[in-house]
Amino acid sequence: MAKSVSFLLISLGPSAFGAENGNGTSARSAEHPLKIAAAGSPDNGEIPLKCPEGTEASRAYVPRATGDLPVTIAFNQDASVSKLLRPAQDAANSPENVIVELTDGAAGQFRDGRIVFSAANAEVHGTRAKLESHPGNSRIGFWTDPHDYLTWTYKATRPGRYDVFLTYSCAEKDGAKIDIEIGQEKLEGTLKSTTNGWWGYTWTSLGTVAIPAAGPIEVAVRCHEKVGGAVMNFKALTLVPTCEGKPPVQADDGSVTLHARDVTIHGVQVQYEPKPQKNTVGFWTHASDTVSWNFDVSKPGTFDLEILQGCGKGQGGSKAKFVLAGQELPIDVEDTGHFQNFVPRVIGTVKLEKPGNYELKVVPTHKAGVAIMDLRQVRLLPK
């Protein structure tokens, strides 16, 4: 008997785009969710997929601590039927949710910091490649000429580092070699055949890029070497925020120091400011922006949580919560006289039960002034 399957909306809220982040492109609907989850899995590994109206899937995966596991997004020829195909290496058909990232077809940055360049808004250069579209399945197909290519112009709202993923389909056993250009950075990849042929979309990780500053950048997808009859069906190029530096690890004395330079940004404006006099998480002008650190702990226990926080004169009073291992420590941001006048504060105690990888999130809940705060450092100090 097949296991039950259901869908739920991930409460990440609407995209922050257009008028709010000033990127010069059309605004997205405030009603669109960012992700959905397929809860459970049937015995045959196939999960029916139904995206919210006005959206389509851009990437699907099973989240794993060792690296997300790609899940195929499969369609029939007119896209009247769509489903998720769990990968063969997931032989145990494990019960974890399949996460489906969504896009509404507009180019730009979502509230969680993800940037999606989709087929629907690509500029196609050449004589053969063209946009094909069924409800829920927009893609660049008929890419039989390797000289054809795709471009987007994007106005970045902030600097930052991103992992880059390409969602595509291909029926060729040995796929094309491609080049990805994002500003001044270039990545290369080799495609492979996908489950369900031209109608099954998987994704591949291409590497990491840094967007150095806010402002316009050019993005391109090109064919370096075509193998077989066509380059690919292109669905989306996704940039996902990643660690700005190196993931922190626990020190020999049991403490854990989370530097601003090692933060991961989830948002459209907050950013790591590297100038020596700053060296902080700053520009925190959107209450919807959040930040996090992932770190390894070998010596669990009880820790004081100390933050190094600054806030401009008359700008205090914002509220935020520090979330770690299911525990929440709320704070009222203190006025320190200047955003770069950092004052250490112990804001509470947390308990880590066992060794492993942990994520600490900082989530604003109220913005009182021009910005939430500047945050230079967080420390876990063993008691």
Written overview of the protein:
The strands form 7 sheets. The chain has an 8-stranded antiparallel β-sheet with strand order 3-7-6-18-15-20-10-9, with no helix packed on it. It is mainly beta and 383 residues long. The radius of gyration is 22 Å and the shape is elongated. The chain contains no helices and 31 strands. The chain has 2 domains: 236 residues, Galactose-binding domain-like (Jelly Rolls, Sandwich), CATH 2.60.120; 127 residues, Sandwich (Jelly Rolls), CATH 2.60.120.260.
Summarize the structure.
The chain has no helices and 31 strands. The chain has 383 residues and is mainly beta.
Feature tags:
mainly beta, disordered N terminus, 383 residues, single chain, Jelly Rolls, 8-stranded antiparallel sheet, 5-stranded antiparallel sheet
